[in-house]
Amino acid sequence: MDRRLSRRGALALAAVGIVGCLGDSDSGPYDGNGESNATTTGGMETTPDDDAIADSPLPIRDGQLPVEYELKALREAVVRSVVPQDGIPAVDGPEFEPVDDVGDRIRDGDPVFGVRRGGEAKAYPQSILVHHEIVNDEIGGEPVAVTYCPLTGTAMGFERGDTTLGVSGHLLNSNLVMYDRADESYWPQMLATAIEGDLEAASLLEFPVVWTTWERWIEAYPDSTVLTEETGYARDYDGDPYGTYNPKTGYYGEDSDWMFDPLQADDSHPPKQVFLCSRPEDGPLAISLEALREHGVYGIDRAGHDYLAAYDPELEFGRLYRTEDADAFDYEDGAVIDPDGDRHDPTDLALEAVYAYDAMWFAWKGFYPSTTVHD
Questions:
Q1: What Å distances lie between residue 210 and 101, 102, 115, 312, CA to CA?
Q2: Which of 48, 61, 125, 237 could form a disulfide with 201 if both were Cys (CB 3.0 to 4.6 A apart)?
Q3: For residue 35, what pLDDT is reported?
Q4: Are 224 and 217 in contact (CB under 8 A)?
């Protein structure tokens, strides 16, 4: 099936005002014959500039996150100027209210992105972030950016130091390309690694963002504060130009078409099936959320490392851990049973946590074609 940007896709983009200069884009991920321009070459070989890192206010992680393409190939695959820089405006002065003041503004089943960090809990309604994609905030006294890409279904958190992140107006593999306002390097959200600019090849510090529903988040964290619609911008926060998650319609339907061709096409799963995804040092992996819900725990055996995914029924969210024996764990009535027979909350296992996030299949496979799949 030809899934390149269709008239329907262009109309959907126009609905959010992001068609912009699409016709003048410098490049796209496919050439005129439908072949990917961004072929894997054994991974990124570029190393970041230590002086640029030292001069930047952005916190940069030690070591590089895995990238399965050369950066030049990724830059050539960027769809540029889909909208002008900051045409989708980040929220730089977010305002919050307590749960008790929200009223009927958010329905029980509406998706929210939750963060608990430094003893503080905050919720970011998807209905607001779909119009802004980035919120530059402080949580637990630390400056952070909470980000969401509606085209890839990815919600991710980043430490930002003494600067802010903005929406560049570019897309890579349908994914939001952020830019930092200190150095103006370009950061595809899912890669968390700069593909262009002074900080090229450097990787950001990430933290987990919980994708759940309003009802479940406030039951778990009734002391949470909630992002309000007082963003400083006039937007229809009652409407989502891509469809709705409650229930899933339009672009968010599992079998619906993507708007832009992925870096690598793969039809082994519905394009927008959601997986719990991670990129540890020994290779990327994707775990079906449907399978995780069904089994409660999912063990992955690898040479050198085992991984255990655990389902959190309270928030309907997956967690990933590194362990020595993934097959030694069980699950019963919402609790993880360890090898000694002791019961544990899935969010509080005495194991090394591994960063993971939810992503649509086509986007994950595009960025990480070597991924193993566990379903």
A1: 22, 20, 6, 11
A2: 48
A3: 38
A4: yes
Model pLDDT, residue 38: 56
* Peptide linkage before 89 cis (omega within 30 of 0): no
Please report, to the nearest 10 degrees, the dihedral formed by the alpha carbons of residues 311, 278, 118, 159 taken in order. -160
The tokens describing 229, both together, are: 């619609």
Whether 63 contacts 37, CB under 8 Å: no
In order of 69, 144, 257, 336, the CA distances from 75 in angstroms are 10, 26, 24, 43
Contacting residues for 62 by C-beta, under 8 A, at least 6 apart: none
Q: Tell me 95's DSSP state.
A: -
The two tokens of residue 348 are: 């509080």
Pairing of strands 372-374, 285-288: parallel
CA dist 361 and 270 (Å) reads 7
Hey, which residues does 175 pair with through a beta bridge? 172
Residue 17, sorted as left (phi over 0), alpha (psi -120 to 50) or beta, turns out to be: left
Question: In whole angstroms, how far apart are CA 312 and each of 72, 219, 237, 318, 346?
Answer: 40, 14, 29, 6, 6
Residue with token string 């002074």: 198
Pairing of strands 154-159, 243-245: unpaired
Q: Which of 362, 179, 356 is nearest to 263 (CA)?
A: 362
Residue ranges for the chain with pLDDT beneath 50: 1-37
Determine contact, residues 297/335, Cβ cutoff 8 Å: no
253-290 residue pLDDT tens = 999 999 999 999 999 999 999 999 999 999 999 999 99
CA–CA dist 146, 140 (Å, integer): 14
Rounded Cα gap, residues 134 and 181, in angstroms? 13
Residues facing 337 on adjacent strands: 330, 343
Whole-structure pTM value: 0.90
Residues forming beta bridges with residue 181, ordered by sequence position: none
Q: What's CA 214's distance to the chain center, in Å?
A: 19
Residue 23 sits at φ, ψ, to 5 deg, of -65, -20
pLDDT value of position 9: 40
- How far apart CA 19 and CA 173 sit, in angstroms, is 16
**Degrees to nearest 5, angle at CA 358 with 10 and 59:** 95
- Structure tokens, 223: 């002391």
